[in-house]
Design goal:
Helix content: 55-70%
Structural class: mainly alpha
Radius of gyration: 18 Å
Oligomer: single chain
Number of helices: 3
Largest sheet: none
Strand content: under 5%
Distance between the termini: 21 Å
Low-confidence stretches: none
Number of strands: 0
Order of helices and strands: HHH
Length: 74
């Protein structure tokens, strides 16, 4: 998610000189930062129980949240 937001929002917003075109664009930068941070925090909180031994499948299947985030095994 952060890579998509950086590519879609911040690259055009800050190109070519690294600053927004004017002060009016500041809310777009804030919205982009929130769009990057909120899903990252939600995903981190939801996957907190799946750390260490919780990531190792006991019955040969991955936990539901792991398959939801990363997709089915290829």
């Amino acid at each position: 998610m952060p890579g998509i937001v950086i590519g879609v929002v911040f690259l055009p917003l800050l190109f070519p000189d690294g600053r927004p075109p004017s002060r009016r664009w500041w809310p777009l930068g804030l919205a982009g930062a929130l769009a990057m941070a909120v899903p990252t925090v939600v995903l981190a909180v939801r996957t907190w129980p799946l750390r260490g031994p919780g990531l190792v499948p006991q019955n040969g299947e991955d936990p539901e949240l792991v398959t939801t985030v990363s997709g089915p095994p290829s």
